[in-house]
Specification:
Elements: H1 7-31, E1 39-42, H2 51-63, E2 68-71, E3 74-75, E4 82-83
Parallel strand pairs: 1-2
Antiparallel strand pairs: 3-4
């Protein structure tokens, strides 16, 4: 068991370490340039149906310097418009 006099010092040291770490991280992040978003929209009808196709699509988009992919999950063109990839989430 820890000496009761040492425990507050450990908590104080931890808080100081955490504060310094957060300050250093924020300072370093300000030195970096703002990232540029280069996105592409992948309509639901064009998205691959298997994991190999998805992997190939992601590799091709990455090679074309896209860093954001927007995937269509809504079919608004049919009479029964709704989500194309239904889930158990409400």
């Amino acid at each position: 068991m820890l000496n009761p006099d040492i425990r507050p010092m450990r908590i104080l040291f931890f808080c100081m370490f955490l504060s310094l770490s957060l300050f250093a991280t924020e300072t370093f992040a300000r030195l970096l340039p703002d990232p540029e978003t280069r996105g592409v929209w992948v309509p639901a009808g064009y998205s691959p149906s298997d994991s190999a196709g998805i992997g190939s699509l992601m590799r091709n988009l990455s090679a074309a310097n896209f860093n954001t992919v927007y995937v269509g999950v809504w079919d608004g063109h049919s009479r029964q418009a709704g989500t194309i990839y239904p889930s158990k989430m409400v």
